[in-house]
Design the sequence.
């Protein structure tokens, strides 16, 4: 399974929160962690407001390597203002490799801009521990669920990340 660029762009347009202060990021991070625990997923979760660490959790099965992946994926989001998976897919679609310093940047799925309607990007939400598409899907599924809860409606059905081997 893969997501096409139009679907990734749709997610970017639609997964924008009404507000994203520290209390909201705690609730979003807690939702991601609860979902991962329920599914037995070995992930690390990181949410930042600008450069401020607002939420971080490392679940069983993760290591410091996941923190390094988080740092490099989030650097892509901060630089391009779009999901790390979308940036990588755009490069792959053009037959190009992502050529920024791999010690600083990773255009792999799992980091998404923390977007606020009418404001734009205020931070990043990142997951690491699964294959890149599954990392991306876990973030976007939880963002959609969180957004639906905030707006008092049912979440739009989104593909679910299945348990898999540990990864980026």
Sequence:
């Amino acid at each position: 399974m893969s997501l096409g660029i139009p679907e990734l762009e749709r997610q970017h347009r639609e997964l924008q929160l009404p507000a994203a202060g520290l209390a909201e990021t705690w609730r979003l991070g807690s939702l991601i962690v609860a979902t991962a625990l329920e599914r037995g997923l070995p992930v690390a979760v990181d949410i930042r407001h600008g450069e401020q660490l607002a939420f971080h959790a490392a679940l069983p099965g993760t290591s410091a390597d996941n923190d390094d992946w988080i740092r490099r994926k989030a650097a892509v989001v901060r630089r391009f203002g779009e999901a790390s998976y979308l940036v990588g897919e755009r490069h792959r679609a053009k037959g190009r490799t992502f050529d920024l310093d791999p010690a600083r940047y990773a255009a792999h799925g799992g980091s998404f801009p923390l977007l606020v309607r009418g404001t734009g990007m205020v931070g990043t939400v990142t997951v690491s521990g699964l294959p890149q598409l599954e990392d991306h899907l876990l973030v976007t599924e939880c963002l959609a669920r969180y957004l639906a809860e905030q707006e008092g409606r049912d979440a739009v059905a989104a593909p679910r990340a299945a348990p898999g081997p540990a990864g980026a």
